[in-house]
Structure formats: structure tokens, C-alpha cells
Amino acid sequence: MKVTETKLQGVLIIEPQVFGDSRGWFMETYSKKKTPQISCEFVQDNHSMSAQKGTLRGIHFQTYPMEQAKLVRCSSGVIIDYAVDLRRDSDTYKQWISVELSAKNKKQLFIPRGYAHAFITLTNNAEVIYKTDNYYSPEHDGVILWSDPELGIDWGVDNPILSDKDSNAPLLKELKI
Q: Could you tell me if residue 31 is inside a domain?
């Protein structure tokens, strides 16, 4: 597996080795041995499908003590995946990175605890699968408004398809995290 660091501490792009032949292909999507930079134990897998291109999910996070690290991949279609630094004592606080994840490129994004996560679909029927190192906790669930000017995220669309939760989310400055 090829592991590439990003400008955000601990956020990694993972490119699995793919073995293909006339029958198709095989890859390991995660190997603790091959990615020692990922020092967490995954406890839950999640799988979402977004039917329409332009669907935005996020900007989501969980608060202490239920923060989650995530290993995200796109198994069908194409998305742009985002990690946003919410660590107040970090030099990159409120900065973000984006990576195209697709069924074709098979890249994955590792997002450690202390970051928020979001993605936007570039195709219809985009499926996203991600591992987490902590269980979902509704009491610790957090969301930031997708268009928060303080973050200035470039989504590539002006009117994304949003859930009620995401369209009514507060600004980061309104949160106590």
C-alpha cells in the first residue's frame, strides 16, 4: 500500500495495491501490518449510497469522548472527500483538504480523530464505505454548515442536495467544541 501524507497532520491518502487479470481484480482495503501509520482499532463499518450527483453529506464529526477516526473509500461512482481540522491547538485549525475517491482509482482517505468529514458526489449512485474506530453516538453527533464562510470550502457546486440536518446546521463559531 502506498501511503501519502497531506498538509493536515495524520490525514493520509492510502492507495492499495491492485492485482488484476482477465477475471477482474483483487486488493486489500486495509492491513494493519501494511499501514502502521494508522494506529487505531476499527470497530464499525458504514456504507452509504447517494442516488443523485451533487449530494453533499457533511460536515460531520463526533465530540469527546466519542470522536471517530475514519478510513473512507468509494466503491461505486466518484466523490470528492473532505477532512476539516477541528483541533483548536493545531497550526492547521479550520483548514481542509479534498481528495477524489472513486471506484476506478481505489484511493482511500484516513481521517484521524479531531477532524470533521464530508463528501460530495460527482456521479449518480455513488457508494461510500468507511471504517470507524468508535461507535456512532447520537449524543455526541456534530455538524457544521456546509457553506460556513469561515471554512471556505470549495465544493464545486452552488446548490448541493442536502439533508435537513445538513442544511440547518450551525456555523463553526456557534459550536462549543
A: no
